[in-house]
Amino acid sequence: MTILFTVLIGGLMLLGFVSSDVNVAFRNGWGSIGLILAAFAGVSLVYPFFGYGKRMLRIGGDPATHRDGIIKTMENRRYVFAGEKDGAMLFHLASPVNRIARLYEDTITVSPVLGGWEAEGLSRDLVRVVTALEHNFADHGE
């Protein structure tokens, strides 16, 4: 967000829509820039607690047999299998436009845990992904 804000304000200053003098462009001059940076820092500290989450998948049976079904379901939800890390499957959005819109914070991790699987990622995406995975395995009796 800070980078986008800087590019946006810098572009407006270069095009002459906003004065390039910081004391004219911002109400409190350099003091405003400090407040803006502090606000971005505060949001950056709090966002991970609300924006990201983990959810258990209610999928019965042997987790070893679910790998292919999980990959297929994620592909149907327009995610791409990006690889594995320490036994966890990593997925990201297939659309480059959607990835850019989310600033590449689109990774969903599906990990085997004691008693099944756990999904981790953006909270708003987890609801759809977990629901799709549980629905797929419930429909197929897997």
Q: Quickly give the structural class.
A: alpha+beta
* Strand order, sheet with most strands: 1-5-4-3-2
Please give the largest β-sheet.
5 strands, antiparallel
Q: Name the helix and strand elements from N-terminus to C-terminus, one letter apiece.
A: HHHEHEEHEEH
Which of globular, elongated, flat, extended, rod-shaped describes the shape? Answer: elongated
- The overall average pLDDT, rounded, is 85
Count of individual helical segments: 6
User: Could you tell me the number of beta strands?
Assistant: 5
Q: Please mark out the parts with pLDDT under 50 across 5 or more consecutive residues, or reply none.
A: none
Radius of gyration: 21 Å
Beta strand %: 15-25%
Helix percent reads: 40-55%
Distance between the termini: 42 Å
Topology:
Blueprint: H1 2-15, H2 22-25, H3 30-51, E1 52-57, H4 67-76, E2 79-85, E3 88-93, H5 96-101, E4 108-113, E5 116-122, H6 123-139
Antiparallel strand pairs: 1-5, 2-3, 3-4, 4-5
Helix pairs in contact: 4-6
